[in-house]
Design goal:
- By secondary structure, the protein is an all-alpha fold.
- The chain has one domain.
- Helix content is 82%, strand content 0%.
- It contains two helices and no strands.
- Helix 1 runs antiparallel to helix 2.
- The protein is rod-shaped, with a radius of gyration of 23 Å.
- The chain starts with a helix and ends in a 7-residue tail after the last helix.
């Protein structure tokens, strides 16, 4: 094989590995995003079930779930800046 063929082979391998790895990361991120969206939809249904003008006591369980979700999300994004 010539030097150009070796170079082309190496380029195809490097970009092929990068492409496959990048697509795996996209797939993992998509799975995480779908799980988070499902949890937020569940919390939203809790708020919708309360009806119009609920009292704070009625909203407290849904507010607690929303706060716990937000804390988990912040810790996932930046675990060192929010150590709660």
């Amino acid at each position: 094989m010539t030097a150009g063929q070796w170079f082309g082979t190496v380029l195809m391998i490097v970009f092929g590995v990068w492409f496959v790895g990048f697509n795996i990361l996209l797939w993992v991120g998509d799975r995480i995003d779908k799980r988070n969206r499902a949890e937020l939809a569940d919390i939203s249904r809790d708020f919708d079930a309360l009806g119009p003008n609920p009292s704070l006591e009625e909203m407290q369980p849904a507010l607690d779930r929303l706060a716990a979700y937000r804390i988990r999300f912040e810790n996932w994004r930046s675990p060192t800046s929010n150590p709660t």
